[in-house]
Amino acid sequence: MKRIVALALVFLGLATGGADAFTRIKDISSILGVRENQLIGYGLVIGLQGTGDSMRNSPFTQRSLQAMLDRMGVNVTNDSLRVRNVASVMVTASLPAFANVGSRIDVEISSVGDAVSLRGGTLLMTPLAGADGKAYAVAQGPVTGAGVAAVGNAASVTEGVATGGRIPNGATIEKQVAGSLNDLGPLVIELYNPDFMTATLIADAVNAFTQSRYGMSLAKERDMRTVVLQRPQSVSATRFLAEIGELPVTPDTAAKVVINEKTGTVVIGQDVQISTVALTHGNLTIRVTETPVASQPPPFSPGQTVVLPRTQVSATEGPAYIGIVGGTSLQTLVDGLNQMGMKPSDIIAILQSIKSSGALQAELVVQ
Predict the structure, then answer these.
(1) Three-class SS string for the chain?
(2) What are 75-131's pLDDT values in tens digits?
(3) Residue 361 — very low, low, confident or very high, per pLDDT cuts 50/70/90?
(4) Where are the domains of the chain?
(5) Quick one: which of 30, 51, 76, 207 has the most CB atoms within 10 Å?
(6) Model pTM?
(7) pLDDT-derived band of residue 337, with 50, 70 and 90 as boundaries?
(8) Cβ–Cβ contacts within 10 Å for residue 329, how many?
């Protein structure tokens, strides 16, 4: 419990007074319309040490290999291939915004068939297409992966994910996405965590800067998610966004408690408050003991030996102390929960009960 609370304090910055720390605008927002595009392709990885697809269980690998060899002038259409050094893979990548022709990007490789490992393989030339079906990049190169797999007749060893890998700078951009920063029109800042107060603070910070720099207010909050900027005519959009991105603000966050019952994780936001309540948590232990006994008939009798069940059930309820929890700050709340010495599962149950009673002044998110 103490470890979880300590981690929560570190993340929130309360231990070092980070509640008043400033954050740059570019760290909490993005520019609307400036985004990545997803690419995908199907290809073959060769050069595997007997860990590729089996042609019987992965017939699409055989057909792909035959089609590739046929394009290279090798006729194997009627032949039955039984190689184990080839694997069919899906290749995925993200095309950055404003990427130019000739730039290189990373690609991710994932096996499609029953290959055991892609370690040591080489991806053959694979076109990567976007959602419109057009090819924007071509990937090729040696596959890098941290997973290891070894399979024998009676045992196997696997470490990590051996059926996946990546190729750093493995794809070359062959087609540029249409559009530029100047084509966006009014620049719009989009918040990662939408909040009305944060949007207002960003608009005020930008206007204070532009008033002193350009003599006019150029920002206006549109809603809880976006702030609209008007670019001055005397400066480029790139330079203007660079100046705006460095402006410091103190983002506001809604009071929220996030709990994960699977992992026992509890994250409490800084502004979470609990109205003063008195609570207790039960300490009931039920023990069931099975002690079967054998019943034997008298000597020389026609009876049979039977096993009779014997079950003992005992219930013990230890002392449970009632405590008063509440306060106007996260530190007060944490101190109150620490004094009761509860486990994460107990804290989750208590927070849910406090929320049901109406005393938890925050949003409760259960994952």
Answers:
(1) CHHHHHHHHHHHCCCCCHHHCCEEHHHCEEECCCCCEEEEEEEEEECCCCCCCCCCCCHHHHHHHHHHHHHCCCCCCCCCCCCCCEEEEEEEEEECCCCCCCCEEEEEEEECCCCCCCCCCEEEEEEEECCCCCEEEEEEEECECCCEEEECCCCEEEECCCCEEEEEEEEEECCCCCCCHHHHCCEEEEECCCCHHHHHHHHHHHHHHHHHHHCCCCEEECCCCEEEECCCCCCCHHHHHHHHHCCEECCCCCCEEEEECCCCEEEECCCCEEEEEEECCCCEEEEEEECCEEECCCCCCCCCCEEECCEEEEEEECCCCCEEEEECCHHHHHHHHHHCCCCHHHHHHHHHHHHHHCCEECEEEEC
(2) 877 667 788 899 999 999 999 988 889 999 999 999 998 888 888 899 999 999 999
(3) confident
(4) 37-173, 180-249, 256-293+308-366
(5) 51
(6) 0.69
(7) low
(8) 14
Query: Do residues 211 and 220 touch, judged by C-beta distance below 8 A?
Result: no
CB 222 within 8 A of CB 228: yes
> Stretch 173-183: mean pLDDT, rounded?
82
Residue 137's pLDDT is 95
Tens digit of pLDDT for each residue in 131-172?
Answer: 999 999 999 999 987 677 666 666 777 777 888 999 999 999
